[in-house]
Amino acid sequence: MSVSDTSGVDFIRELRLRQWARTHYVPADMRSDSWHPLVLDEMRNRDEELLEAGALTTRTRSIYVPLAPGERIELAVAS
Q1: Whole-model pTM above 0.85?
Q2: Residue 37 belongs to what H/E stretch?
Q3: How far apart (Å, rounded) are the C-alpha atoms in residues 24 and 13?
Q4: What residue ranges do the domains of the chain occupy?
Q5: Which residue among 13, 17, 56, 73 is least packed, with the fewest CB closer than 10 Å?
Q6: What pLDDT was estimated at residue 64?
Q7: 63 — phi, psi (to 5°)?
Q8: How far apart are CA 61 and CA 27, in angstroms?
Q9: In this structure, what DSSP letter does residue 3 have?
Q10: The pLDDT of residue 9
Q11: What is d(CA 41, CA 2) in angstroms, rounded to the nearest whole number?
Q12: Distances (CA, A) of 20 to 4, 39, 57, 58
């Protein structure tokens, strides 16, 4: 069953399945093909987001130059 075949799933159920998929995310090699197509689709969406975030992190790291050690700055803990 593909995601397009899940037209019988109501909107609330779809949201719950997608939220469940995000909360219980696992890497692709640990997923079962027997899982609901919406769960698999949302986990694939999350895979893409993580790839994009990883690419952004890599680019960001290469852009910024760390500051030389100098003054000691302490941040107060929020209460």
Answers
A1: no
A2: helix 37-63
A3: 16
A4: 7-63
A5: 73
A6: 63
A7: -85, -45
A8: 25
A9: G
A10: 86
A11: 9
A12: 19, 8, 26, 29
Q: Sign of dihedral through CA atoms 49, 55, 60, 66? A: positive
Distance between CA atoms of 79 and 59, rounded to whole angstroms? 34
Locate 76 and state its tokens: 């107060």
The answer for residues whose C-beta is within 8 angstroms of residue 66's C-beta and 6 or more apart is: none
Per-residue tokens: 32: 């079962």
Instruction: Report the half-sphere exposure of 53 (CA within 13 A, side-chain side).
Output: 6
Q: Which two tokens stand for residue 41?
A: 């689709």
